[in-house]
Backbone:
């Protein structure tokens, strides 16, 4: 087993990996940029190494700095988390050259799956269903228009090296296509350093359902059920759950088997995710494979009882999987809500600043909070505006939702705008509660954005009586002040009151 | 609350207060003390949890994702409060304001230029995404208040129109 793991990431995922490493008795090294010198992951790790200025291109994305940090601290393995260098085969290769283990898949799998064009060809060969589209590199805007017309609108444009929803755009006509192609190319260049774009048919009413796979270095590959991540806003996941309320046992098995077949084709080791798009008739098509740990992995951990980070570390250290496909049992239901520093009432614009107050709900066997921040820390403009991932569990979907509602209710954040109102509104939305979701649901249900009127309070009497309580307790306390003139002490009248005020926009501060 | 007055009577009771509202009695019980951000207690025996904040005269309550600002006043003060003038927000329609904190990467217009509704005015990069700001109406650029490369704060003016 490894002696010391370096985590080439920041935020909640760095903290998440440190927790498991600590549990396994492995020492940890954090890396951080100047903006993160007071971050939680730096605090939690046994050692920390400064790797550069705040912009990611000068710190978390610089392989040489991280390699140097490994050498300086004597780390014998690197966990890349998600994003940043997690899907760069060159990083994996450079580590291996230095004799440092990469806690993730091998170079070949990352290369094949990291390129969406290659991955589609491989998927077809492995007998995996794929979406109709153009798998060759697109030369320019004219070429993009020609391809889009051939496939037929609507079409989706994606950065070949992209992932996690960044660098994706839908075009409904030629004008969208021309404009979107240029923007996608620019974003791809600045985010991934690779501006190749491809185009495919856009499926309407789609669900995003992904299969978690896990392989070892002995050729054993299992799938750990699915995650439904259909609730997305602009291709960014908002709520994820496992299992999916939509899949039947037959479809689940078919998807799982195809995911395993694809993984086998690239000799996949470690944890990975095969993403599928599922239409209303339960036809499923391969979307892409993420050769890393996913943001939403905790929902799978809840229903399988496994620690995926621990499994990744064990596989990277050369251990075989400790269980077979038959031994994988899914139990109960788990939901994850992503708490972001973004203002739902201002069209979800990101908010930055200091967390003046941060009180997450109490963690217990049904509530888990994965975070990389603490009260007094800062959400900076350089990185993802995620505050925390809130995950709840229940024996049934309804129970998991009820726990999520209570947990959101207690989640107290002040100082930056946050999306808790939006998450709470989704939890009581009939389409969510009955499982009739698709990746378009948020856009369809909130076409003009999200407003305070979307979260009406169904019981004003509750708010009024609580406000009355608050004020009366305040008055009673104020009446107890010492040093009052004898005989003229303040007496709170026995009966009092009138509540007045106005409805406001939550999140405003 | 909600711009409306809701007359209530509050009576002290064991472990809390009884609130009379619209002919109904609500028994609110809680250990809550001033300064606690979470109000945990019971309302007619049902458990409740509400986030509370005091902002000057206002109690800001946050529950099930909705937020309400409530003032609790004596009957006479409430009557006077209803007569207070409301300050209108300033007219910002002649400005292009930065909708988010970010980096101004491109200014697409020049001083004195006539722009049409929908035309690209500026591009802001934030959270790894390029955001295009477009004109809402036809207008003429009167002043340019920021330069490419500037880090913008939320609501910072970028362009003033005539």
Residues:
């Amino acid at each position: 087993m490894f002696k010391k793991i370096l985590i080439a990431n920041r935020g909640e995922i760095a903290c998440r990996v440190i927790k498991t490493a600590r549990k396994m008795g492995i020492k940890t090294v954090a890396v951080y940029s100047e903006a993160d010198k007071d971050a939680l992951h730096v605090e939690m790790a046994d050692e920390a190494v400064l790797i550069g200025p705040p912009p990611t291109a000068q710190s978390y994305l610089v392989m040489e700095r991280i390699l140097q940090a490994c050498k300086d601290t004597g780390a014998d393995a690197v966990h890349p988390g998600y994003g940043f260098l997690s899907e760069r085969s060159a990083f994996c290769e450079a580590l291996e050259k230095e004799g440092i283990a990469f806690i993730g898949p091998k170079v070949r799998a990352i290369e094949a799956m990291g390129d969406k064009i290659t991955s589609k060809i491989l998927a077809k060969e492995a007998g995996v269903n794929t979406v109709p589209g153009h798998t060759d590199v697109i030369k320019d805007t004219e070429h993009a228009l020609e391809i889009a017309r051939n496939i037929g609108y609507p079409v989706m444009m994606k950065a070949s090296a992209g992932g996690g929803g960044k660098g994706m755009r839908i075009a409904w006509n030629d004008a969208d296509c021309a404009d979107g192609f240029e923007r996608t190319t620019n974003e791809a260049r600045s985010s991934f350093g690779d501006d190749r774009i491809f185009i495919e048919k856009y499926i309407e009413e789609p669900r995003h359902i992904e299969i978690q796979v896990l392989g070892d270095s002995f050729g054993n590959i299992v799938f750990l059920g699915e995650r439904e991540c259909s609730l997305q806003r602009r291709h960014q996941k908002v709520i994820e759950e496992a299992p999916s309320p939509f899949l039947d046992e037959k479809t689940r098995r078919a998807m799982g088997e195809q995911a395993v077949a694809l993984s086998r084709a690239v000799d996949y080791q470690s944890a990975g995710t095969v993403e599928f798009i599922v239409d209303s008739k339960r036809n499923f098509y391969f979307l892409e494979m993420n050769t890393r740990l996913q943001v939403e992995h905790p929902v799978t951990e809840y229903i399988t009882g496994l620690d995926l980070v621990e499994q990744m570390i064990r596989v990277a250290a050369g251990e075989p999987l400790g269980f077979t496909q038959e031994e994988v049992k899914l139990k109960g239901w788990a939901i994850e809500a992503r708490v972001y520093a973004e203002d739902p009432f201002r069209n979800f614009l990101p908010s930055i600043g200091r967390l003046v107050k941060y009180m997450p709900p109490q963690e217990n066997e049904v509530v888990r909070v994965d975070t990389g921040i603490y009260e007094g820390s800062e959400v900076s403009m350089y990185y993802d505006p995620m505050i925390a991932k809130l995950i709840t569990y229940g024996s049934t979907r309804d129970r998991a939702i009820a726990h999520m509602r209570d947990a959101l209710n207690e989640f107290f954040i002040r100082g930056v705008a946050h999306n808790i109102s939006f998450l709470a509104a989704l939890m009581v939305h009939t389409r969510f509660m009955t499982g009739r979701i698709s990746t378009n649901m948020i856009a369809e249900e909130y076409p003009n954005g999200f407003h305070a009127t979307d979260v009406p309070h169904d019981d004003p009497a509750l708010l009024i009586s609580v406000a009355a309580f608050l004020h009366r307790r305040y008055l009673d306390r104020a009446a107890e002040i010492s040093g009052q003139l004898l005989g003229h002490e303040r007496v709170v009248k026995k009966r009092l009151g009138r509540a007045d005020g106005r409805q406001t926009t939550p999140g405003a501060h | 609350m909600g711009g409306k007055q809701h007359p209530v009577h509050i009576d002290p009771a064991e472990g809390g207060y009884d609130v009379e509202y619209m002919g109904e009695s609500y028994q609110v019980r809680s250990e809550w003390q001033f300064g606690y951000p979470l109000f945990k207690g019971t309302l007619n025996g049902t458990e409740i949890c509400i986030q509370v904040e005091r902002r000057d005269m206002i109690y800001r309550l946050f529950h099930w994702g909705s937020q309400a600002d409530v003032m609790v006043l004596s009957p006479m003060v409430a009557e006077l409060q209803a007569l207070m003038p409301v300050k209108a927000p300033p007219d910002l329609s002649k400005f292009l304001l930065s909708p988010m904190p970010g980096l101004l990467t491109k200014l697409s217009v020049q001083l004195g230029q006539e722009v049409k509704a929908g035309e690209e005015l500026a591009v802001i990069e934030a959270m790894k995404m390029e955001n295009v700001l477009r004109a809402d109406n036809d207008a003429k650029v009167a002043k340019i208040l920021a330069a490419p490369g500037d880090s913008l704060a939320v609501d910072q003016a970028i362009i003033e129109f005539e």
Chain A touches chain B through 68 residues (CB under 8 Å). The CA atoms of residues 356 and 366 of chain A lie 27 Å apart. Residues 4-103 of chain A form a domain with the Rossmann fold fold (CATH 3.40.50.20).
